[in-house]
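Newbie here. four chains, one complex. Structure please?
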Amino acid sequence: MMNRANTATLLLRCPDRKGLVAAVANLLARNGINIIDAQQHTDIDAGLFFHRVMFDMSGMTVSREDFLKQLEAECKTYEMDWKLSFGDRKKRVAIFVSKYEHCIYDLLLRHKVGELNCEIPLIVSNHEDLRYFADVFNIPYYVFPITRDNKREQEQKEIALLREHNIDVIVMARYMQVLSDEMIAEFPNQIINIHHSTLPAFKGAKPYHQAHERGVKLVGATAHYATADLDEGPIIAQGVEDSSHADTVDDLVRKGRDIERVTLANAVRAHLDDKIIVYGHRTIVF
Amino acid sequence: MMNRANTATLLLRCPDRKGLVAAVANLLARNGINIIDAQQHTDIDAGLFFHRVMFDMSGMTVSREDFLKQLEAECKTYEMDWKLSFGDRKKRVAIFVSKYEHCIYDLLLRHKVGELNCEIPLIVSNHEDLRYFADVFNIPYYVFPITRDNKREQEQKEIALLREHNIDVIVMARYMQVLSDEMIAEFPNQIINIHHSTLPAFKGAKPYHQAHERGVKLVGATAHYATADLDEGPIIAQGVEDSSHADTVDDLVRKGRDIERVTLANAVRAHLDDKIIVYGHRTIVF
Amino acid sequence: MMNRANTATLLLRCPDRKGLVAAVANLLARNGINIIDAQQHTDIDAGLFFHRVMFDMSGMTVSREDFLKQLEAECKTYEMDWKLSFGDRKKRVAIFVSKYEHCIYDLLLRHKVGELNCEIPLIVSNHEDLRYFADVFNIPYYVFPITRDNKREQEQKEIALLREHNIDVIVMARYMQVLSDEMIAEFPNQIINIHHSTLPAFKGAKPYHQAHERGVKLVGATAHYATADLDEGPIIAQGVEDSSHADTVDDLVRKGRDIERVTLANAVRAHLDDKIIVYGHRTIVF
Amino acid sequence: MMNRANTATLLLRCPDRKGLVAAVANLLARNGINIIDAQQHTDIDAGLFFHRVMFDMSGMTVSREDFLKQLEAECKTYEMDWKLSFGDRKKRVAIFVSKYEHCIYDLLLRHKVGELNCEIPLIVSNHEDLRYFADVFNIPYYVFPITRDNKREQEQKEIALLREHNIDVIVMARYMQVLSDEMIAEFPNQIINIHHSTLPAFKGAKPYHQAHERGVKLVGATAHYATADLDEGPIIAQGVEDSSHADTVDDLVRKGRDIERVTLANAVRAHLDDKIIVYGHRTIVF
């Protein structure tokens, strides 16, 4: 099988024009690099081109530095926004939790069995409740109790901690605090949240109660990037399940737990595998 | 197999108390009637009991009139709202269409192969376009062109036509006119509409464009009873399908067509089989 | 809300005839018992009637002993096979595991958050690997290493242990040993297994490899009661997810994990809530 | 929007090696051709590379003949199997039917509303029953009654008819005759069949009866290319829906109809849009 450590993934966005795929493919081919996987998308109305290329560098005939220089030159020529991730540098994830267990259980199980290609150097919470579960995996668990008065101060400490540990991604695994705009600005398109209902329906509090009142026949969940505009961040993944009059609010909450953790995990895996390009209020998930 | 003509279906709603199931079961048993199927639901918070009983009258030892008298007496005792439908009296359905074909194709196919237990004595439209398809099945097709000025007058004619033909159910198979409150009041909980999106999200016009703009990862449809409060009628059925950035608006519309017709058909079949009790803004669909 | 401790659930099977629902409903009503929920099913071809009644005994006017005597008499009259479960007596579950984590993580999470109405007095394994996870919840973890030579002997010890702890249900949470016919005979329709593929397709070993070879566009899982005829036990629940050529065997295994744990949990919950009647090679899951 | 008439789609298969994407991209770029969409897949174990490229030729700087020569040369160099389809040459589809309506209704509706990019010059049947529906769309309807004795002879006539009308694709829309190996050999990977159950389960006759007997909780359908080995052709698409003990065989058949027509349509659309590469007993559906 392929050795992931020799791979890299390139994400690109640029004005659409002829020869873009050729330019990238030639850059790789002339340096002895083999394309493993590639996807592309064109937004015809906006005149934009999006590209994801995963490649194997085991036969690369130049140094990484040389390759990067060539890549930069190419991207400048074509006005490309780009991001390159090397397979031997795992992303570092901080999980934020409050008291609900289901999402963190799920993420740590998936990490343990190898589904999530990342390191999890720390867990942050505003409550002590889930420390026992972090302990099972020997992951440091930091508690920052939040009150109306200390919120800004505590967030500053959290940001410092995250910076100290070189955190790339924050996963809000049912973390029940609204992040400040400042926090979100520190990690643009790096904070993944799970909303316990299908957006744009049932925004705000107690969505399962709202769903029950309205007698809906489906319940769902939405994973999205956190933005300053709450519940309006770019949607990454959504899930849904049937419901009926026979479902109590408890049943809806139970179904919600199942959908939330799977949907959140799908979003996190897509992010870790460099499959997402954010684009206006939308995402492309290759 | 069971002969449907000998069956009847009873729908009940009443304050919850002990002995309700026994009262109904005894009424049936003492008259030689066999229960084929039964469902019940209790809304504990509201203190309400809901019951559906389908039974076989082939061994009934009294006349229908006698049985109805006994039923009325029983229902009075327990403050039951009730509705009884006999299997030898098929519901009479009017389909309303405009120009979109997919829902009417679907309904007429299902009717032809025996999925829908009803008669379809007529189709009403505000356009000539789909007459050719009504002709395939020899169903009379009435056209009432609607303008801003003649709407009330045309609706009066429609109501008269529907009354003349003893119509029980109106199915709005992508009929692109908003019905007046008067029309809706004439057929309470008898008009089934399909909304081309999952309510409560994306109410109003062009929901697939809205969905595309928002970059949702699911598209859906909702069948509901028409009420004066547009898009807020009791939901009967919902359907959903995955979508992605690769879907154009046309793709979403195509997926929508598939979901709309199946969801509408599910709602219509539930109504025809007397499986629905409307209850506040909600439905119970047994 | 309803206090579960005052409830009981009755499961019935008998030859179909008139008056069965009335007989049960009268028995309950005359003893001051309120029906909370009820379902029924008739197999017309086989002439069999199936019934599930959940009721609230908080207003019961007789002792449990008296009620049981009356119930026995009634069941004798109508040739009913019956099973009664009291809500104040939780079922006792033993989980069997080997080395895969995903199903046991899932079951213990669900138990912790209150989804599974049972006690879990012990976990049995043929390996030490998952002891760490049982320890999180302080559940005794017994290891019986199985070899070709000691299998019968070890199973005898397991049966003794299960009997000693009054175990009602065995959940094979990816337990990788085939149980002997003797073991299965000890716990008829009380052992729930998860098969990592949709039966009847891809029986036997390595179903995800088989699915990959065949290029299927769906993968799934089946929860069923263990019977002497391996992979042929009555199916309780099934789940499925889309797949494509882009899925490696690892991807199929990952998708399988998600489906397996949800499907197993659905089956276990149905069993614990007394919703299942086994019937030939089939189940009725109310 | 893009004018489909100026597009073409290239499907490729070849031994995996470096520079393949670059070779194709360069060929297109140097002739003024813009890539609209592209997908690729590598089977690492088999050392094979698969590629689909859809491109816009409106700015092509050479003639089609010149371009084809260059393409042939390139494909020879890289040992590529290839197929090129021009957007201004619609595929010509023959639909084969017997007596069931649901699949042909569905296909003709989809064709009418523009979902299927093809011409349908004729319908072939072994029965007169569905002529009325072909007439709605003015599609010639040819009947070849099949008996044990005349089968070979009738198939010869069918093949002649199909050849005469330059048919590219045969869609078996619940055509209830087994095609001869000769017929299949005439149209390799061009005959799409719908099997009314998820393969590999429930092969053979009456799959819904088999499913009912076995008490499965899911029913499905499989669309595949017809091969000499019946029910073993490469799978293109599959669909599935929940079922339960409450479903009669009629209910399963009804659910089957819904799944069959959607699954068949998905397979046909993928074929018409040149999204499928057959590969051993498998398909890649980009």
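Moderator note: Chain B has a mean pLDDT of 94. Residues 4-86 of chain B form a domain with the Alpha-Beta Plaits fold (CATH 3.30.70.260). Thread marked as resolved.
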